[in-house]
Amino acid sequence: MADKIAQPVKDIDILPAEERDLLINQWNDLADDYPSAGCLHELFERQVTKTPDASALIFNDHALSYAELNRRANQLAHRLIAEGVVPDSRVVICVDRTPLMVIGLLVILKAGGCYVPLDPDYPQERLHFILADASPILVLHDNAGQKVLTAAQENGLLTLELTRTLPEQAPQVTGLTPRHLAYVIYTSGSTGQPKGVMIEHHSAVRKLPVLRDVLAINADSRLLQFCNFSFDVSVSKFFCPLISGTGVHLLESHARQELMQFWSLCDRQGITHVSLPFQYWNKLIETGFPDATSSLKCVCIGGEKISAKAINAWLESSAKQIKLVNYYGPTETTITAT
């Protein structure tokens, strides 16, 4: 540089050839044949044809197969279409952490609508704001949702229950394309009112296979769905396993509060992957890991940057052999950005 003081900065190569090749070629060798068309629920339906008898949902030691999950979702999707749901229709879903949560998401998508998740534990003020702002055509709920949404009768509350007399085949939704909305998830509102972020099918369809491969999720994996479904990271925790031939293990709300019960479930179910809120992971660091966590292969942490102190504590614990992933991404970028 000193010998060529008139050289433009843009022409100065600050990286050695070996490091440049590492950054640009070796680490960036990610080309693959990922799907670029179709809708989110169609990825699931393709997996149903491959593994119809595999367990898709596991809850309280009871399992629901891919074929049965698909049949149940198809049945209620016909009901939603009859109620007027069309592509881009917003449908609020307010349910507890049971199989109805996953069934409900698929129901809305299969009917052509986009789902707007509401946690029944949210403050009434937030629930009412989102209901008013989203202007849903329907509101799906279970008993937990019904208790907190009594003020939403004008939105056409529809109880989330299965009607066995309806057709079991997937409905044909006229005009539905990957450019229609898959979901609307509201931000925390920490800097003002919550804002609904609209994500189209094609964005999720493109991102999910990438996350599946990066996290090494396959048919032998066992994923524990720990995340609140009102946060966008839950999209990957529901659908990455459901496009991989493995099952989603649902954890009841009260079980999330007891650390030892959490680890006991991981051991009993052979959980390999879990995504934890930052504060919960910090508690694990403070209390320490039990020795019997051999099945876990990957723990994902999101929401905040992990400190060097916390990472060192992890590496010095019995969990040091478990892959730790710290991800970040605003809802607008579809689940993650980095």
TrEMBL record:
It holds the Pfam family AMP-binding. One of its GO terms (biological process) is secondary metabolite biosynthetic process. GO terms for molecular function: phosphopantetheine binding. Gene3D superfamilies: 3.40.50.980. Transmembrane segments: none annotated. This is Non-ribosomal peptide synthase. Residues 44-337 form the AMP-dependent synthetase/ligase domain. GO terms for cellular component: cytoplasm. It comes from the Bacteria. PROSITE patterns: AMP_BINDING.
